[in-house]
Fold these 2 entries.
Entry 1:
Amino acid sequence: MRLRTACPAPPRAWTVELRSHPGGLVLACQHCPHGTTPITAASARSAALAHLARHARGDLRPPHLRICQCHERGCHWHPRHRGCAGPIRLLLACERGGRLWRLADACSACSAATAQAAVVPDTALARAPLQPSSARRRGRRCPKGPGERVRVREMLSYLAAALPEGTSVAARLLALQCALRMNTRMQVRLPRGVLCSLCLNTASDSWHELEQARWLRTAPGNACNEITAELLDVTLLGQAPARPDRRHAADWALRAGSSSAAGATGPLPRLASVYLAAHTDPEAGSGLGELDQMARACGTRPAELPSTLDQLTATGLLGSWKACPGSGDLHWALAHGTGIRAGDRQREAARGNPVG
Ligand SMILES: [Zn+2]
Ligand SMILES: [Zn+2]
Ligand SMILES: [Zn+2]
């Protein structure tokens, strides 16, 4: 009798490459035997991400069967650190200036140590994408998964990797709202109130910009008080369930972006406010980050940030901030009594209690 040995499951790590070709660009996948696919420069990033997402969605596995693929390969995707730790998440990483894209399971420590990478907000890649229509609606539901602040932080990090580098600040603010508000069919409806809060009109260049990047497609014949769009970034489907929680996170981001708007106009102070609020420890009211990463998430250069941070201090959002030119570290403290800080505390306290 022959012993049956279990066939090892293929590793949950996929890589695609964008290669120049006489006719333009081609997408080459290391895991697909069918050669290369021609693509346009404008759609290259979205095509690469869509391809990777298809692989990930075709290989769903329960969490206990997922292992750190970075560790499996000797941790050469990042500088040295103290070893694997933390839950396994799906990490999107980009190398060679956007020529190589990788989606892989990685532990929290390896994810944090990897440059040009973002954890995909993946609370539910392993769940069915559609909720039964007879979902129970008894009473108020308990919030699931991470709180608003963490959701917004993860989405900012994801969008920093997924949107083309040249994406404007205003388009990033819009993308954040769309990603957090989309439904399970990847459609989003942004009412006038939200667009006003973002200082966008329905015919704004930001919509056009995200369309050019093949990140979304607006529906024809949009009314002037609302815009309907379909998101094309299928990687985002990983965070489809628990839509009410994501919508709360979208509202939280709107408030965080407008809390300083009285004095600080323009998209950059708004997005910077959201970024800082999302990366602030709500207990301490202060935060620690890196200028580089903040600049990437905000679609700007690190050199632009000091004047924005000064502006936010002048308008009363920040109490203080300090950047270390050598290390690029950034420390900040929110001003006392900032609305976001107080609201955040209440919500996080509420999450610890049963909702009734
Ligand atoms: Zn492939
Ligand atoms: Zn590693
Ligand atoms: Zn690891």
Entry 2:
Amino acid sequence: MTTHTQQAKASGTFSLGGDLPVTRLGFGSMQLTGPGVWGDPADPEEAVRVLRRAVELGVDFIDTADAYGPIVAEQLIKKALHPYADDLVIATKAGFTRSGPGDWRPVGRPEYLRQQAEMSLRHLGLEQIGLFQLHRIDPKVPLAEQIGELKLLQQEGKIRHIGLSEVTVEELEQARETAEIASVQNRYNLADRSSEALLDHSEARGIAFIPWFPLATGELAKPGGPLDALAERHGASPSQLALAWLLRRSPVMLPIPGTSSVAHVEDNIAAAGLSLTDEEFDELTAAV
Ligand SMILES: NC(=O)c1ccc[n+]([C@@H]2O[C@H](COP(=O)([O-])OP(=O)(O)OC[C@H]3O[C@@H](n4cnc5c(N)ncnc54)[C@H](OP(=O)(O)O)[C@@H]3O)[C@@H](O)[C@H]2O)c1
């Protein structure tokens, strides 16, 4: 049931893989861990409240990864939200090993990707993962083998859709020779548009584009940042403008802003209801 409190719904819907609808403004869970995306967050109870508040406000698309913590973010999602609402889609990832804070090393060997899919099913308490993303392509393993294993997991019903992360147009097309790809997740925000070609390519093919660092890790949300003056004029927060710009940029855009605080999750989700005029969109595009 959609109530007036479900603000996120105003961002509209996108169908992942053509058959799995999600509300476009989602939530990213990487901030719910310790420094360097390692270990527990400073305030685990607040992390639980953040996740519950996001869902209360209409978010039904949550991005996570086995590598966040590792395991910490997935377990918090389960603690906060299990048993899950029927419409909740959890997108997790595999393909990065962790050896310490800030340390990320790709491993894409098929048996490892399979193990991590099984671990994510267990840690999240799911029978099927809605969207399973290859966190990074492992340059040491043929891409067809990495995607081939994900396709097997899909055929076995363990994952519903396959996504990629940090890829080029060429890599996306190469992966599509092995399996259908429902989404790509690359760094993209007002201040970093280096993945513009991938975005346009994805839009033309109905593939979701999930921009990570949508707030440029908070740089676009900070007081005194580049969006301050425009935000004041608009009666919105800088973070809301940055997210409204992303939502307006493409109908396949699914922003997943991350935060460890309830106040910020409320601020971010209110961006769903913010519509920009053509002039405002152009002004923002030119501002940063
Ligand atoms: N595929 C990949 O390789 C990859 C890489 C990185 C991230 N991701 C995904 O993308 C998601 C989003 O990225 P992110 O969380 O790192 O960066 P982000 O969304 O760009 O920014 C998060 C930062 O902004 C701050 N912030 C959030 N809302 C704010 C607000 N309303 N006002 C002021 N500050 C605010 C947060 O601090 P507070 O906690 O204090 O609010 C945090 O420091 C992640 O959670 C993760 O799911 C994927």
